[in-house]
Structure to design on (624 residues):
């Protein structure tokens, strides 16, 4: 196969930029879903479509990777970054699909709070990905990693305490199972944001 | 340690071939388990034994990897492929063990459907692994990846909609928890098939 | 960035040693939690604090990795080892936090047994990590891997059979959900011990 010798860094950064834009839009949809009653199916369809688009962007990154000899970032890091970014949206989509399918009775206010934390986190992830091309904002990258880690801690705390509350207060085991599932997907999405932050920090440390 | 300089590609391909044959047999056992009532323990024992055999085949690949200087495929890819193939059978075994242990009352017909989708998927995985030695069937490899991805989507859809139905119709929370667990293991096995397809596609793209 | 050319192997081994000491202490705390009624919050706080300390040790390993040109072990292996060791403690902490938050009614005796198996396993992990600096105890490393694998099998068996028993005997679905969760975290911690054993064995095989 012909592999390009001249690095076309722009293509990777462009694709990563589109993925992180989709990510923010997807999580905004999830936040809306949890803040209003009903209209679940429309939002779930929107998130599913963003997830499919993002799959194709990830696939484009992989194809480009196989056709390029010299990459701006280590191949393995590009691969990991694409996979992990994709994971975040997959988990947000999984949460939205459960909300649509389970039609849980009452949205606990902590679920809204948790989705807001995820939204903050993916916005920081988008900023971080946007800083990759120049590799000079080392200090800002470090700050973002710390902040994304803090949000992950906060999300974990919200999930744990909400579940403890539901175990005390919820009378219907089916409702508890539904929310346990949904909260887990959202919280795992913040875990994947932390992974992306770690990978990105690693890339910047290696290259400066 | 003495490391062989001459690549013995055959050993790797032979072992991968045996693993994917075990995989298909294991999932066939799972399909049978879900299509008949009772006889669960025999099938569960059969799957457990296939899982152990496969662990040893994976171990043989790892040992051979450490004794070989030049490998037909990148070391990391051989490692990943072995681990992911093993994961598929582990998940099928986990599902069969839950069926045996929980003795759920009625098998939802969708559980059979889901196991059939997994069976189709592992058959395609076996075909894909069988194509590795010549690395020339690039087009067929691409088709298989697309098809395995489609089956994963289908499995995900079946799991989600079955769970939504159980949440609406099942009166016994214990039964719902059991099936939620079992369906998840089967669906995660189709996810791992997708991973194997991605890794295999990557190997072929790198080597052609 | 200035990268040291002279390997300072001691730093890595020192940090790994501290992490595995924290691991053993953390799991001892979990065992205590499950053997006495009450006092849950104190133990949970202790485990949370060990988890935070360990995060910082992992971070120190990563920083040191980025500042070192020549590492005693392959970079990727150091990275994987640190991440997997960290996972074990994260899962033990997750279990302890659930015990504290859910305040389940009666501790099944199998939960104590399961935590003891995990304790045995992390002690063997600590021994294994301690053998890394000389790389000569090949035979002992192999024995430890076999034994850690056996403990993982045992943990899996305990979890499965306990769950089967609870499905038969437990009348309260909320209690079953709580213990299903807690047992899963502890068992997954033994899985991660197996991962650490595999990585460590791989390192020794590569280097002898």
């Amino acid at each position: 196969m012909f592999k390009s010798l001249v690095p076309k860094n722009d293509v990777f950064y462009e694709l990563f930029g589109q993925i992180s834009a989709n990510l923010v839009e997807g999580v905004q949809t999830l936040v809306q879903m949890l803040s209003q009653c009903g209209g679940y199916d429309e939002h779930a369809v929107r998130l599913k479509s963003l997830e499919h688009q993002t799959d194709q962007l990830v696939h484009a990154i992989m194809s480009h990777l196989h056709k390029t000899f010299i990459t701006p970032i280590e191949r393995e890091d590009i691969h990991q970054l694409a996979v992990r970014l994709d994971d975040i949206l997959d988990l947000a989509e999984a949460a939205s699909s459960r909300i649509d399918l389970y039609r849980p009775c009452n949205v606990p206010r902590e679920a809204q709070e948790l989705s807001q934390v995820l939204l903050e986190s993916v916005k920081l992830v988008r900023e971080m990905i946007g800083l990759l091309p120049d590799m000079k904002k080392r200090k800002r990258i470090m700050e973002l990693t710390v902040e994304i880690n803090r949000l992950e801690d906060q999300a974990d705390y919200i999930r744990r305490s909400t579940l403890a509350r539901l175990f005390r207060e919820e009378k219907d085991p089916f409702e508890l199972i539904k929310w346990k599932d949904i909260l887990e997907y959202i919280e795992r999405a913040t875990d994947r944001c932390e992974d992306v932050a770690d990978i990105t920090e690693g890339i910047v440390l290696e290259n400066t």
